[in-house]
Amino acid sequence: MNKVLLIDDDAELTTLLQEYLVEEGYEVVTDTDGRAAIAAAAGNTVDIIVLDIMMPRMNGIEVLQRIRKLSQVPVLMLTARGDDVDRISGLNLGADDYVPKPCSPGELAARLRAILRRAGQPAAGATTDTIRAGKLVIHPSSRIAEWRGETLDLTGTEFSLIEVLARSAGQLVSKQDISKRAFGKPLTPFDRRIDVHISSVRQKLGLREDGQSWIQSVRGQGYQLLVD
After folding, report:
1. Rounded distance, CA 33 to CA 15, Å?
2. Domain-by-domain residue ranges, the chain?
3. CATH code that applies to domain 129-223
4. CA distance 214 to 55
5. 58 burial level (CB within 10 Å; 0-12, 13-18, 19+)
6. Which among 36, 111, 116, 206 has the fewest CB atoms less than 10 Å away?
7. Listed residue (189, 201, 191) closest to 157, CA to CA
C-alpha cells in the first residue's frame, strides 16, 4: 500500500481528498505544515508527497526546495489555477507534477498513479486500473474513456463526472456525492455545473435503443449510469 503525505491547510479539501484516496487503496497522512513534509522526506517515511503551494509559515516552493536537498521522494504540487509562475518554479525545483486547484479527486489519484509508476513503485489500484460498465470502459490513469470500442472526446470535467458514475454503474449517485468526488468540493446552492456537463456527456453517448438516455436522472437527487 502506497503511503501519501497530503500537506494543505484547507481542511475541507483535505478531508475530501483523503477520503477518496483511501477508497483508492492509499494510506493517507495529512498535515497543515510544510515542515512535516521535510521531516517525512528526511526520514523516508512516505512514498509520495502532495504539497500545496499557498500555505502559512513556509510556502510550498520553499518546502520543495528543502525536500530536494534531502530526498528524491516524488512530490506533486497543488497550485492556484492559472498561476504559471508557481508551476514553473515548482517544476524547475524538482516537482514531479502539479494539479491546479480546485482539483477533482479522480484527477489527483490518476496523477499519483502515473508518478508512482514512473518512480518504479506499484501504484495503489494499479491492478484494477480499468473500470468496465457495460459498453463503457474507463482508464483512470490515462484519463481515457472508450464507448462501444471508440475513444470518447471528453473534457477533463466530463471525464471526472463519467468516471464517478462508472464506478457506481447501475446505482443512483447523489449530486452532492458527484460534486465531492468529481470536483473535490461540496455542491453549493443553485450550482448547475453538474447538470450542464452531464447534458454534454449524454449527447456524446447517444441514446439507447428504447430512445432513453444512458444517464438517467432522478429529479432533485442525482444521476445513474445504465449498463444494459
Report:
1. 16
2. 1-118, 129-223
3. 1.10.10.10
4. 43
5. middle
6. 206
7. 201
Residue type, 117: R
Q: Give the CATH fold of the 1-118 domain.
A: Rossmann fold (3.40.50)
* Global pTM value: 0.64
Structure-block grid coordinates of residue 105: 479527486
pLDDT in tens, the chain (228 residues): 899 999 999 998 899 999 999 988 999 999 999 999 999 999 999 999 999 998 878 899 999 999 999 998 999 999 876 667 777 888 888 888 888 887 888 889 888 988 887 776 655 655 457 899 999 999 887 788 999 999 998 877 788 899 999 999 999 999 999 988 887 777 878 778 889 889 999 999 999 999 999 999 988 789 999 988
How far apart, in Å, do the first and last CA atoms of the chain sit? 34
